[in-house]
């Protein structure tokens, strides 16, 4: 191959490599993700956005009154020592489900507990045999809907021990 043909072929190869590089750059370049929060972050609104996000997280936090060992004389009796309630520091009602750890069976459900409410002595919804049961008290913070019903807003689980004596 003469020198002139080598220069033309070399120029074509370099031009093709440049075109391929530009195409790869354009194809692999990551587009900015769409902001689903409605926030456009800049230096002037950083503090406001941070405050708004903190309020949203704080809104999902809640406190509950409860102890972790509940004693029942038998599987159909009311407990005299279980404490379960919605703290007066909360801003929303709660509901609870007590779920046996080993079977996943729900043995007790509360209705809606308004802010500040504490359950009176209660019976389990399921008659348990004598024994000690490990359970989780799953507590749901509720958000009232426009139609007056409630929707789970956030939740937390707390371990409890259920002791059925007879």
Key traits:
two-stranded antiparallel sheet, alpha+beta, Immunoglobulin-like, 166 residues, 2 helices
Strands across the major sheet, in which order?
2-7-6-4-5
Order of helices and strands: HHEEEEEEE
The number of distinct helices, counting runs of at least 4 residues, comes to 2
Mean pLDDT, as a whole number? 84
Radius of gyration: 31 Å
- Strand proportion, as a percent range, falls in 25-35%
**CATH structural architecture of the largest domain:** Sandwich
Number of domains: 2
**CATH structural fold name of the largest domain:** Immunoglobulin-like
C-alpha termini separation: 101 Å
Shape: elongated
- Poorly predicted tracts of residues: 32-36
Class of secondary structure makeup: alpha+beta
> What is the CATH class designation of the largest domain?
Mainly Beta
Biggest beta sheet attributes: 5 strands, mixed
Strand tally is 7
Helix content: 10-25%
Describe this structure in words.
The chain has 166 residues and is an alpha+beta fold. It has two domains: 31 residues; 103 residues, Immunoglobulin-like, CATH 2.60.40. The protein has two helices and seven strands, in the order ααβββββββ. The strands form two sheets. It has a five-stranded mixed sheet, with no helix packed on it. Strands 1-3 form a two-stranded antiparallel sheet. The longest helix has 26 residues. The radius of gyration is 31 Å and the shape is elongated.
């Amino acid at each position: 191959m003469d020198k002139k043909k080598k220069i033309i072929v070399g120029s074509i190869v370099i031009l093709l490599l440049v075109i391929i590089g530009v195409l790869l750059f354009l194809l692999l370049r990551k587009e900015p993700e769409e902001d689903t929060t409605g926030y456009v972050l800049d230096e002037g609104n950083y503090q406001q956005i941070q405050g708004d996000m903190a309020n949203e997280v704080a809104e999902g936090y809640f406190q509950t009154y409860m102890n972790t060992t509940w004693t029942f004389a038998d599987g159909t009796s009311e407990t005299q020592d279980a404490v379960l309630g919605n703290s007066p520091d909360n801003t929303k009602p709660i509901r609870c489900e007590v779920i046996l750890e080993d079977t996943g069976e729900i043995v007790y459900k509360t209705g809606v507990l308004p802010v500040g409410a504490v359950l009176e002595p209660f019976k389990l919804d399921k008659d348990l045999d004598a024994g000690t049961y490990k359970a989780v008290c799953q507590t749901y913070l509720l958000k009232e809907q426009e139609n007056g019903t409630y929707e789970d807003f956030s939740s937390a689980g707390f371990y409890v021990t259920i002791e059925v004596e007879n």
